[in-house]
Amino acid sequence: MTSRPEDGEQGSVPPAPRSPQAKVGFIGLGNQGGPMAEAVSQAGFDLHVWARHPRSLAAVSGVAHTTHDDVQSLGNSRRRSRSSSCSLRGFFV
I need a surface site. Which of 15, 39, 40, 75 has the fewest CB within 10 A? Predict the structure, then answer.
């Protein structure tokens, strides 16, 4: 059971249970996508990323992640093998 904070109170909702193999793919690591991708990895998800500009990868340099060479390899990972499928993909443009 989760509780919601009353007006003005600080509170948090516990994270939903997830599979230890949960993989999340991110395309776009700019001002919005970068911090979100970093938080996803810090939360224990298997992070997969692609960035148009290599310098954007700095946003996830401090966390565990797998870098893909192109969007197709990130998007098509499901077709190659179920074990490499990203459970969720985020696009930040």
Answer: 15
Q: What does the alpha-carbon distance between residue 51 and residue 61 come to, in Å, rounded to a whole number?
A: 13
Rg of the chain taking only CA atoms, in angstroms: 15
CATH code, residues 23-91: 3.40.50.720
pTM of the model as a whole: 0.67
pLDDT by residue, tens only, the chain of 93 residues:
444 445 555 555 455 555 556 788 898 898 889 999 999 999 998 899 999 898 999 999 999 999 999 888 887 655 444 445 566 666 665
What backbone phi and psi angles, to 5 degrees, belong to 8? 85, -10
41 and 62 in contact (C-beta within 8 Å)? no
What are the sequence ranges of the domains in the chain? 23-91
